[in-house]
Amino acid sequence: MDWLLAASIALAIVVALAGIDYRIGGVALKSHSAGRVLVISLVLLAIRWRIGLPALSAWLMRITLLVAITGSIASWFRFLLSTIGGADSYGYVSASHLIASGQLVDAAPIADWISAANRLAIASPLGWAPAPDGSGIVPAYPIGVSSVMALFSAIGGSDAVFLVSPIMALLTLALVYRLARDWHDGETALFATALVAWNPVFVAYAKQPMSDMTATFFVMAALVLAMRASAATAFVAGLAAGAAVITRPVLLIPAAIIPFASQRGDQPRRRLVFSVAGLAIGVLAQMAIQDHLFGSPFSTGYGAAGGLFAIGNLGTNLKIFFGHGWTVVGPLWLPGLIVGIFAARPDPRNLPLAVGGGVLLPYLFYLPFDHWETLRFILPGLVPLTIVAADGLMHVARYPRNATATAVMVCAFMAIVTWRSEHLLRISSAWDISALEARYPLAGEWININTPASSVVMANQHSGSLRWYGKRQTIRWDFVTPAQLTTTVRELQSHGATVYVALEGDEVAMFDRKFKDVIGQLQVDHVGSIRNVSFRRLLAAK
């Protein structure tokens, strides 16, 4: 009853602030009247009052935390991104369709129309890469989340891929509650769940078709299962850790911690062996996938490790992670973490610190990305650390040894965290991402309506989405050299294609600058635009 009451209050707040206009597949839900929802809340409150309330201060604290949790969940679905856009979303979703068909290599027949030495690279949309053996193109990103998407689409249809992140986020919150309750108590567990739910990175990526939530879920599942006592749960904990590696190979370090965490119960060595076996299955599977797709068990679609990781990146990344970390987790989280470290027993302290450090370590040497959303890379480590921070803040709130004072402090902590998170998400346009990403289906619709079915579109940012929404073959102009441009256009024309270019924003200047010395060899017609995407038709003389 408390959950229903809190959910109705949270829904009323979301309706009042943003309205509800949710549609995915054949499901549509609209509401712009918070009053109707509040009537339901009042009815539920009356029923709860009739059933009987516990101590009022503790109950109000519980309802506040439940409203925060359900409010965050409601925001994911209210602002759910259900379009295919740039490299990440197209890469993951298109790979899921390939996996569902039982394949990992796409033939890319358009590459056969082109004579350039790098024709497979030219034929690879964002999120894809040439197969080393020249047999086609392959998913550039790890296929863990794409495999989950393939499962979802098999059960719920093609649009179900957009539900993977919010469902994984829901399951992660349930695991946070379970682990925090095992380590601490119900109030601390609920507080930890609410703090995770309103981490701005968590909110931002619970509503996008990306890998972050799935990776975080697998890490949390491994941790929860590692805390059990049977050999079977140790094995499944290892499997979950292995699934995290398949989803994001750089998580190998925290995954390797799980077997050691599984050493508990009456037969700790047996559990260690079973957990190692489960993890080994995932690691060997990922190595086999990499060998099949990229020609070596140690190669990835991101390129050589030397080009991604460097000691020289350490100083810059320390500034990025700690600077933006303060922006993301705020002034309460770090003191809470410090108090929690000193107050907690060994398991609730050491395991989150080890996992958090293991997640962070490789990213300290990774290519720098100076933005607060860079912290999505370390989200699988931030989530268990938040349990420690929640315990520390709860120790502070309980210091007066007065139930009312504790409830007031916890509610105040939660209000501050929620306000800061929502403010950051609002000024960063995170609530507007669905509207911003609408340019991808709009550009695809323009191409679908205004170009012949045999057309080929040269694109970069839209190289995947125009395949998805425009139903046209695409090639990458950014991989075409100036010397190849005219020849490539002529070769495409010889196969009956009309050649177009789709350029978004700064790509216009980039394209013009790159091909300024050769574009005069082609007839160029500016044929239209939609939002910030412009379209040109290219014609080479026969």
Please describe what this structure looks like:
The chain is built from 23 helices and 9 strands. The model has no long low-confidence stretch (mean pLDDT 93). Helix 11 packs antiparallel against helix 12 (252-261), helix 12 (252-261) runs antiparallel to helix 16 and helix 17 (379-398) runs antiparallel to helix 18 (403-427). The protein has 542 residues and is an alpha/beta fold. Strand 5 (456-459), helix 21 and strand 6 (473-476) form a beta-alpha-beta unit. The chain folds into 2 domains: 62-81 and 163-431, no CATH class; 87-148 and 438-540, no CATH class. 62% of the residues lie in helices and 9% in strands. The chain is globular and about 85 Å long. The strands form 3 sheets. A 5-stranded mixed beta sheet has the order 6-5-7-9-8.
